Structure formats: C-alpha cells, structure tokens
Amino acid sequence: MALHSPSKGTVEPEPDGLVLVGKEDDIKKSQRITAKVNGREVVVFYHEGRFYALDSRCYHEGGPLHLGEIEDIDGQPCIICPWHKYTITLETGEGLYQGINPLEPSPTPRWQSKGEKQRIHKVTVKNKNVYVSPPDLSVSFDSDYFAEKYKNGGDLAMKK
C-alpha cells in the first residue's frame, strides 16, 4: 500500500467492505489523517491510545475538523472546529454546548448535548493496518450535508 502523504490515505476496499486508510504506526505518529471512504472525506484521529473516525467537515458549516484541536470535556475527548469553535465528541459525534438553567438561584454553565450531529465511523485495526467501515446511510446526520457537498473537492473545496 502506498500513502500519498501523511494527511491523505489511498482507498483500498477489502472483501468485508472495510476501507484501508493507513498503517497503524503512521497514524499513531501523525495523530490524524484524512482519507476517502466510499467517496466521503473522513478524518481519523489517534488520541490517548484510541482511534476515532468522523466525517471531516463540521456539521455546523463544513469547517475542517482535521485542523481542530482535541480537548477533554467532562472526561470525553472532543474535537473543536477551528471555524466557529463547535465542540464534537470523538466517540459519539454529539454536539456539545455550555448552557445554564435560568431557574437556578446561581446558574452555573454546564456542558449539555445537542444530540448526535456528526457522523462517526467504525475503526478496525488488523495486522498493523487501520480500516474504516463505510457509513450506514440509512441513518442521517447533520454532517451528511457537508460530506456530500464537498465529496469531490477534498482540501481545495474547504476554502471559506
């Protein structure tokens, strides 16, 4: 398998439908890559011993999540979109926000969920290779709009 660069993996479908996105050691070193999975750009993160994969465009306005910072929020690793600072959990794709209960005597902001907004993808590691499962399109997510909109554009289509 040849990789074009640390940020772009080649697409090599396997018999069981998994898509090879890179070598385990390479992704561990770079901490993140983007790859095409069934025509859809996906970002794969390696964070604190685990692999995560999400649609690479933020569900809000299509921001480039592969350029975002990972932060721990209430014990959950989250990617912060570099465009508008939207917070997305790596494990579930939930959008998080800080809200208050105005009925409390001294309202304290707490992290709350907007629900699963960002499509996540299952990651499998076999024989030192990292694979991503194709998305189940029978269920829709807010990020699908931008995944489809920028399907053929890659990084060139991300200019704001």
Provide an overview of this structure.
- It comes from Gallus gallus.
- Pfam families: Rieske_4.
- Its cofactor is [2Fe-2S] cluster.
- This is Rieske domain-containing protein.
- Residues 19-120 form the Rieske domain.
- The chain is mostly beta strands and 160 residues long.
- 8% of the residues lie in helices and 41% in strands.
- It contains two helices and 14 strands.
- The protein has helices at 24-30, 144-149, and strands spanning 8-9, 12-13, 19-23, 32-37, 40-47, 50-55, 69-73, 76-80, 87-89, 94-99, 110-116, 120-121, 123-126, 129-132.
- The protein has a five-stranded mixed beta sheet with strand order 1-4-5-6-12. It has a five-stranded antiparallel beta sheet with strand order 7-8-9-10-11, with no helix packed on it.
- It is globular, with a radius of gyration of 16 Å.
- 36% of the residues are buried.
- The model is unreliable at 1-10 and 156-160 (pLDDT under 50).
Cα Rg = 16 Å
From N to C, what is the helix and strand string?
A: EEEHEEEEEEEEEEEH
Number of helices: 2
Derived structural class: mainly beta
Mean pLDDT: 88
Tell me about the biggest sheet?
A: 5 strands, mixed
Number of distinct beta strands = 14
Distance between the termini: 33 Å
Poorly predicted spans:
1-10, 156-160
Mass-distribution shape: globular
Strand content: 35-45%
Domain Rieske: 19-120
Organism: Gallus gallus (Chicken)
Pfam family, one: Rieske_4
GO molecular function: 2 iron, 2 sulfur cluster binding; metal ion binding
